[in-house]
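Same chain as my last thread, 401 residues:
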Amino acid sequence: MGHLTGLEDLLRECAPQVLAALTRRYGDFDTCEDAVQEALLAAARQWPAEGIPASPRGWLVTVATRRRVEALRNDTARRKREEAVAVEPLPEVRDDELTVLFLCCHPALSTPSQVTLTLRAVGGLTTAEIARALLIPEPTVGQRISRAKQRIRAAGGRFEMPAPEQLGDRLDAVLHVLYLIFNEGYTASSGPSLHRVELTREAIRLTRQLHRQLPDEGEVAGLLALMLLTDARRPARTQSDGALVPLAEQDRRRWDAAAIAEGVAILTATLPRARLGPFQLQAAIAAVHDEATRAEATDWPQILVLYGMLHAIAPSPMVTLNRIVARAMVEGPAVALADLDAAATDPVLAEHYRLAAVRAHLLELAGDPAAAREHYRAAARRTLSLPEQRYLESRAARTGT
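reply #2:
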């Protein structure tokens, strides 16, 4: 999709606000979302030629309202009622993006549906753009969006913030969706490219908005810091031919110093006052890596401690693997290989390419190139990402024949 233009940025910023204005007035999220998409497409066609109106959001609300009226014209009584409302003064566009985001992450939806609906309703991406970003057919995206809106309606989803007792769980779901969008953009799970920049950029933009609206939520700040500190390394993660460059071999002069400084500042301001959570701990680990000017200067003992804390409050297979790698860097590969044998009993990890890749790395550190080569090749066979596959095959080749 290329670098976002100022017009695209403006439309994506306006999208959830305009949707909120219509949904607050009419109540039916389904029809309003379709109308807003049509208004965004109309703006993308007209504004480059005619110029951006003095009130972009007001223009979009007006056009979306008309589109919604047109969509309901088969019902004469409803048409008269809608047209009467449509000539009322436009409502003040309120900052209701947060409400839209919570609605898109409604618990009645599956995670893939939450991701897709969030990208469209909050991110302002078209169906075609989402299909390209997620590498799935456009009809599949359309079906997900349609079914997601139907499920929200069937579950009685309303355009309002969750009740206080539900807020924590719903915010966790929102953060999870934003994290998934970022990760899919930063290390694409399949396809020819390592990065899908449109997804990482959108995840950071949405998380930045969420942080602005919920400045006292430590995990929101932690997620934003984590995204900034991780994405800062993107310029050095690939060679000119798209080949993956591992962290230890990256040219750190190419890292985004401004993003690192912002991420560290957010984390530094958050840690003393917020309840510690997994995103803050992951951001702290990323900060330790980013603040090392050379790979050899990385404070691995501190990283191992942080992974131990993360494992205690939010254990997961990937945390287990990363903790094992950190332990290898502190205590040696033999100890870490014993931990890996224990971790391999987890069915989630047993066939995952990362398990084989970590084992290969540890065996290489332990001085067993033949065994390392075997596991690098096994990892390469299991991943669907072509850049990671090429990298793992190159590591196998470097261990000799």
